[in-house]
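Blackboard transcription, Thursday session:
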Amino acid sequence: MSESRHAGGLEIGQDLRFQRRMWAIQRIGWAVMALSILAALLGLFGGAGPLSVAVVGKEEAPISVEQYYRFLRYGAPTTLRVHVDAPPGTGGEVCVWIDREYLESVQVQSVTPEPARVEAGSGRLTYVFDAEIEPGQPTAFTFTLQPEKLGAIGGWVGLEGGPSVRVEQFVYP
Amino acid sequence: MESVLRAIAVYAFLLAIFRITGRRTMAQMTPFDLVLLLIVAEATQQGLVGDDFSVTNAVVVVVTLIGADILVTFLTHRSRVLDRWMNGVPLILIHDGEVIDDRLKKARIDLDDILQQARATQGLERLDQIKYAVLERGGDISIIPRRAG
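(Written on the board underneath:)
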């Protein structure tokens, strides 16, 4: 009587086989929900969390990104902290550039500390900070960014006349 | 365009999640379930509307949501398979006076729920007065009493 319009004296569209399948799928659904919560706690769906917070480059290097988030959400601001430990350029200025590829996917909302000026170069924007850096006494600049593209984004962040590091991120809708 | 996609995504997500939760949860709604539902509404609202607070956006979102609902009911009317996936099938919990325990357990229904429904709708006093109890597709329990003979 797995599929009949009658069960006992009732005219009813009971279907036990289907019902069991439905229950099984619900159980799977619960498992998926539990896993999603776990994944969200780990930061897989954006925001903070051990799987999302990341570092590129070494701390002793002239430039590294000491904190950024791998998983972002569209429209939600995020931060990227650039760590600079290099002998200063001429005149106590530190010039950090971000390449165009990255700037096309995110909008820079603010930079802390505020740069003295921003220079547009070929394929990059250079943020010039007034900073006196002694070797071994590093400093950090925080960029507040808002993702403007979905999916995988990425780009280079570098020190003028120095090395650069690549940031890879994923933006959820 | 974005509003339509947002609305469709939220509609599909909510549809899926409410199907997964099972009907038990929503039919016998406790006061707390109501509060939960309000919070769910509040949480979805942000994703639904985004940062566009214009009337146009609200109109587009509402039209899309209701349109999606009409489309789903239209399709479930035409396809029996889809209808079952969307709305489930009824399930007999008490068959000719005999309580089918494993179905109660699987459907997360207590005997107390059935007895309560029997009192409320049929004015029955005891379990043995129930001939059939059916968990309907909407999640409510219907009771068919034994004919006094």
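Lecturer's comment: The helical segments of chain A are 16-41, 100-105.
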